[in-house]
Amino acid sequence: MSEKPDAERATARADLTFETDPGAARSLWTACAILLAILLWMGSGFVRTDPPASEPAEAAAPPPSSVVVRESVAEPVPMSFSAQGQALPERDTEIVTEASGTVASVPVSKGQVVARGAVIAQLNADSAEAALAQAEEERDRAQRELDNATTLRDRGVGTVDRVAEARATLAAAESQVSAARDTLDTLTVTAPFAGRIEDLMINDGEYAAAGDPVARLVDNHPITVAFEIPQQNRAGIETGSPAEVRFVTGQTREGEVTFVGTAASPETRTFLAEVQVPNEDGAILAGVSAEVTIRTGEETAHFVDASVVSLNPEGRTGIKTVVDGVVQFHEVDLINAEIGGLWATGLPETAQIIVVGQGFVREGEAVRVQRDDAPGRSEHAGLEEQGEADQ
Question: Compositional bias (Basic and acidic residues) spans (predicted)?
Fold first, then answer.
């Protein structure tokens, strides 16, 4: 009996669908009504949004940073190039013998200053003098024979051929005399220029072969200072440029550039250059170190404290200034350094340089400006001069 009602209920459920179920249709309409009510409620403005976050942020914005600025005016700055060099003699020559022979005398000593043509050494000249005397006798005999032949020809008893033969004999004899004199001259070793005997290699009584060194002669007037110019500085240095040379021995001399190379060294990429310095008194010694300074032009730059130089986020060197209350960053080149500061180019002719607080502000930031009352470079120099005058 119980199985039949269950079967009937199963059959009824199987025949029931969404379209035929009146309860399901009512649920659908109820859900749509609830969704429509939510949409109308949200659109009616009852849903309030939070106020913008910018309003309290703007109200709490900090005041502009305060910086101290100092007015700077660009000044002309002489530009120069400096390099280390070495003093070289004007001439440094090893004197050698032209002939062979025994050294008869050495009339000079090491360290002696000699004039041009001074005798450095004399080789034994006995044989050469005898050869010269014999050649002169032969020349005199040939001259007499020519005179006799000419006289006989004039009298009509001599021939023209005899005169020509005598004249040729005389010419040969004169050549022998000239050669003998040259040989005798080579036995005397002389100074080719004025200078100082830096070394002597022979002594009296020694035998010297042709080509053997006799002495080393050095001329230090004028003196030459050789130095190297890096390729990036070559353009500003030319022959004839004035130069100041400070020697390690303490002397300072004015000189002139006499040579600048036109081909860089393959190893160092530098150009050889030379400065000639007067040295009449011989006080500048060859071989000593020296510093060469050459004026290369003029730049307009600002003298600033090293503390005002900074780097921007890109790593470029520059100085921060204030223009109309806003921070500006100027890329600069540091062209020179002195005690107390640096010379920088790249700033306007007149600039308000931030001297305090530059590390806490950025380019484009508005700032409050306080002016530094400390005197500028030129004013400070004027105050020092005035103080010295008052004393």
Answer: 369-383
CATH number of 66-77+299-376: 2.40.420.20
- CATH architecture of the domain 93-214 equals Beta Barrel (2.40)
Query: How far is C-alpha 311 from the chain's CA centre?
Result: 26
Q: Residue ranges of the chain with pLDDT lower than 70?
A: 1-33, 35-61, 374-391
Tell me how far apart the alpha carbons of residues 286 and 196 are, in angstroms, rounded to a whole number: 12
CATH 2.40.420.20 residue spans of the chain: 66-77+299-376
- The predicted pLDDT at position 336 comes to 85
Which string of b and e fits 57-74 if b means at least 16 CB within 10 Å? eeeeeeeeeebbbbebeb
Domain boundaries for CATH 2.40.30.170 within the chain = 82-88+219-298
Half-sphere exposure of 85 (CA within 13 A, CB side): 30
Nearest to 366 by CA among 57, 18, 66: 66
User: For residue 83, what are the contacts with CB-CB under 8 A and spacing of at least 6?
Assistant: 227, 228, 229, 291, 292
Q: Are 318 and 312 in contact (CB under 8 A)?
A: yes
Dihedral (Cα; 125, 131, 135, 138), 10-degree rounding: 140
Give the global pTM: 0.59
CATH architecture classification, 82-88+219-298: Beta Barrel (2.40)
* Residue 190 contacts residue 117 (beta carbons within 8 Å): yes
How big is the CA angle at 330 (ends 328 and 335), to the nearest 5 degrees? Answer: 155
